[in-house]
């Protein structure tokens, strides 16, 4: 078959794809109207997860899973925009990894709202200035993000979804490695490529700034400076890339939480996040975790943060497998709550595959 015939075949398929996409979007618009009439949220994480899982299971190839999911995220983003435009708050400015997480999770059909701090993301959602918020909660190299944990205990919002973002770091500079005297970046990226910096820029001064986007801006002004950032922040600079993928951990992943106000229905493969505190006594933590063992519930994360009382008492943050409406999960949480001075469930949401 000639290349002209092959291209004609592609053109015919593209025309059919456009027709079907518009048909899909019209159905989505009708769904949006129904949701509005019934006062239901536009974004439904459990439906999203079921749809993506079904697509992946029915994909015969040669299109790989990640490419298929990326295409459909943009299709769903366009459909949501037709249903009702969504506003997503994130830790700004634009170009940060939080911004990248919003785009990869929700697509480019949403309105991205950068705010100065993680606490401001929670405030924007709580006050209704944003429909949802995207906040980092832990990284495979640097551990938990404490401002997110603190805000979860204080704000009147719920976790409605999670998202894992592979983090690849690049070194931007107008100078070669041998001439770089200082390196700007956010605290997290500096920690995530500590070994690279020690081996390749041992004499450079490391300077923490508010964001990777700000780091690039500062490096543009100084000939002997460099910035560590992601690709998104670097898309708006003329600075050359001196080195790519300089993160120490090849599986450098940041887990993000989507916060909102709705309660999700169970999917059969969920995660529940919570926080609790108790008065200090011997064996208190062991006793607190016993209900999970008794009800055969797996924990996927446990972390502690000191209470602001200053008496060396702690909040414990726990993620478990299951939905809060599952009988075993509900029973375990009821037993745990009865032994705690503070107890709060942050939300149940679809568990994403690693």
UniProtKB/TrEMBL annotation:
Subcellular location(s) of the protein: Cytoplasm
Catalytic activity: prephenate + H(+) = 3-phenylpyruvate + CO2 + H2O; chorismate = prephenate
InterPro entries in the cross-refs: ACT-like_dom_sf, ACT_dom, Chor_mutase/pphenate_deHydtase, Chorismate_II_sf, CM_dom_sf, CM_II_prokaryot, G/b/e-P-prot_chorismate_mutase, Preph_deHydtase
UniProt pathway annotation: Metabolic intermediate biosynthesis; prephenate biosynthesis; prephenate from chorismate: step 1/1; Amino-acid biosynthesis; L-phenylalanine biosynthesis; phenylpyruvate from prephenate: step 1/1
GO cellular component: cytoplasm
Keywords: Amino-acid biosynthesis, Aromatic amino acid biosynthesis, Cytoplasm, Isomerase, Lyase, Multifunctional enzyme, Phenylalanine biosynthesis
UniProt GO molecular function: chorismate mutase activity; prephenate dehydratase activity
Residues of the Chorismate mutase domain: 1-87
Residues under site feature: Essential for prephenate dehydratase activity: 254
Keyword match Nucleotidyltransferase: no
Known EC number: 4.2.1.51, 5.4.99.5
Pfam families: ACT (PF01842), CM_2 (PF01817), PDT (PF00800)
Domain ACT: 273-350
Occurrences of domain Prephenate dehydratase (ranges): 87-261
Function of the protein: Catalyzes the Claisen rearrangement of chorismate to prephenate and the decarboxylation/dehydration of prephenate to phenylpyruvate.
Protein name in the entry: Bifunctional chorismate mutase/prephenate dehydratase
Species, as recorded: Victivallis vadensis
Gene responsible for this protein: pheA
